[in-house]
Structure formats: structure tokens, C-alpha cells
Specification:
The protein is about 5% helix and about 35% strand. It has a two-stranded antiparallel sheet. It has a two-stranded antiparallel sheet with strand order 3-4. Strand 1 and strand 2 form a beta hairpin. The longest helix has 4 residues.
Length: about 100
């Protein structure tokens, strides 16, 4: 079952050929008409996990992927059109988007 054409992905952010931080992006992963992966995107299932039978498990991979600047979620850090990186005021905010509370 193909259920999403876009995904929020936490990825390495490079500007001006320098690693800056991890950052969240909205990424186009499937064609809206065919629902097949777009070029450079690899999507697959890994099968059921012991004890987690209620949800599908899979992987999402990228090869030479470039994401438009306007797809970056820039609440805590920013990149200007010239590539200037503006870090968050508190570096701990960068990693807050990766913390998920499983209750």
C-alpha cells in the first residue's frame, strides 16, 4: 500500500560545501499520479517486526537528492538564498524534532 507522496525527513544540512546541522525537510518521495518513487528515492518494506504487527515497517533511501530551500522547515534555524546559515539560538533546539515520546 502506497500511502504518502511526501515525507518529513531529518537530514544532514550542507551549505556552501560545509556541514551545518541536522534539519527537517518536506521531501517529495512519490509521483502523485503513479505513486512510484521519484528519481533518486528508494522505498521498500522490511517485513513485520516481532511485537509490532500493527504497523508496516520499511526504509526510505536517497541518492544524490537535493531538496529546494523552500522545503526546509526553518523554525529554529535558517538558510538564506545566498547559502548563509543562521544557527538556532539554542543548539539543543536542533535535535528536538527527533525526539518522539512513545506512550
Amino acid at each position: 500500500d502506497h500511502t504518502a507522496n511526501y515525507a518529513v525527513v531529518i537530514a544532514q544540512l550542507y551549505t556552501l560545501r560545509k556541514f551545518r546541522s541536522l534539519a527537517p525537510f518536506i521531501v517529495h518521495i512519490r509521483d502523485e499520479e503513479t505513486h512510484m518513487p521519484v528519481p533518486g528515492v528508494d522505498i521498500g518494506e522490511i517485513g513485520p517486526k516481532l511485537g509490532m504487527k500493527s504497523g508496516n515497517n520499511g526504509y526510505l533511501g536517497f541518492k544524490n537528492a537535493r531538496v529546494p530551500l523552500n522545503h526546509m522547515l526553518m523554525k529554529n534555524q535558517q538558510v538564506l538564498f545566498d547559502g548563509t546559515y543562521i544557527p538556532p539560538k539554542n543548539s539543543a533546539l536542533t535535535y528536538g524534532t527527533m525526539i518522539i515520546d512513545h506512550k
